[in-house]
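Residues determine shape. Next comes a sample protein:
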Amino acid sequence: MTATIRNEMPSSGGSQASPQNGESPPHRTGLRDRLTRFLMSHVRQSGMVVALVAIVALFQIWTDGILLKPLNVTNIIQQNGYILVLAIGMVIVIINGHIDLSVGSIAAFTGALSAVLMVRNDIPWILAVVLCVAMGALIGAWQGFWIAYVGIPSFIVTLGGMLIFRGATQYLLQGQSIAPMPAGLERISSGFLPEWGTKALYHWPTIILGAVIMVVAVIMQIRRRRSQIRFGQQVSAPWLFVAKCAGIVAALGAVTLLLASYRGVPIVGIILVVLTLVYAFLMRNTVFGRQVYAVGGNAAAAALSGVRNRRVTLLVFVNMGALAAVAGLLFAARLNSATPQAGINFELEAIAAAFIGGASSSGGVGTVFGAIVGGLVLGVLNNGMSILGIGSDVQQVIKGLVLLAAVGFDVYNKRRGGQ
């Protein structure tokens, strides 16, 4: 603000005023300052993207090019799909000012329920999927009721839910795994977008899908910029905006070509893209999304503005339960079985992805895209360290340090902004 005021002050004789009392020169409107303002205004959004690119580049070098081989990129998507689904729901919960420790157990329970329905009772797998997602939403509603309407802290309610549904999973499975899952469900986790026509050098359906995603991503950026201008918010210079859009297109194009050079985009990847776009639109462009941010940022002010805080919180947990069920089904399909040990530490991975992606521990801050980036950071770390033969103990230490650094960065930004 100080720099802005100084820049608006007229100078006498067309020359710059000399600094007084040790202050910096008043006129600083060069390229460097524009870049600095742009980066500072986008630090929470772009910081982890830069970190992800750096991590990918390092592991690409350390693994002698294995990391970005098409087969390995496909594996990263399929291996982390269920965590990324959970991260989408978890970041919304955290934005709302709460936490959910039960998502791993809910995922395990719904996965076990799907196996009981499909394998033991011969229920069609599509109907079983619908019933399991509905069960997840019902569980989320049950937990959301205690949090929103009774007033019990979400940490306590979901900690209880973690224990309840872990025990329910073991009861359903009687300590044994149920396999195999129906072929239709298994294809969702391990299948690919079908080829059209004769086989070519690149998987054309993937190329077309990637082009559509690029167009949608750019349109969303343009709409967001227009909205900011309409409401009088400060926006970056046009050339910086064009450079940002070009970077998004380049990144999406690179991933598209990598996937298209193998077997195409995995079905899990399509599910993730659809969920990411839908929830990004929901959080940015709908009344409900704004209410979630409002309640998480200042619940009392939101209530005075007419927001029904309890209803918003209830719906947030209903959504989290449904997405946990989707994640449980994806995991069961990938394993081709339902096991009593499924879902262990899923909640920790999802929470870490949300915080690494820029969510604030105090609520009111975060994006769906950031949670996806945070989940990919963890996924690339896991995959790269596994390729290098690094033990799971060291991997846990490194991921913990990354999480601590991300939350510390959030605290630093808050303190700096308050000065």
In short: The chain has 17 helices and no strands. The two ends are 12 Å apart (CA to CA). Residues 204-230 form the longest helix (27 residues). Confidence is low (pLDDT under 50) at residues 1-29.
